[in-house]
Amino acid sequence: MTTEEKLYALADQINNDPVHIRDLNRTYQFELKPEARYSVLFSNGTVTVEKEPIKKEEACTLKLSEANLHKLLEGNWNPTVAYMTGQLKVEGDVRHALKLHEIVKQYTA
Known about the structure:
The protein is α+β, with helices and mostly antiparallel strands. It is built from 4 helices and 5 strands. A hairpin with a 2-residue loop joins β1 and β2 (about 35-45). This is Sterol-binding protein.
């Protein structure tokens, strides 16, 4: 499955059961190596995914490899360890990145 397919599949899964995101209003942007960008917007109990979004200053931006994003989306990656070892770079509040990991775990468990 491609990165885009994984993001849309997870978004569909969350939108079908939004109980864990009802109060979340936040934008996450992913800058991947090799060059690719995605945005995931949580708003009013729904998730939308956008490919090649315009950079938003208020977004929590995660910079990582495409392979590591796959691991994150599958629930097989510890972002805390990744951040401490330089595999993950975060622009914005690191707590938001951890919140994203908690949400993903709810839907991949």
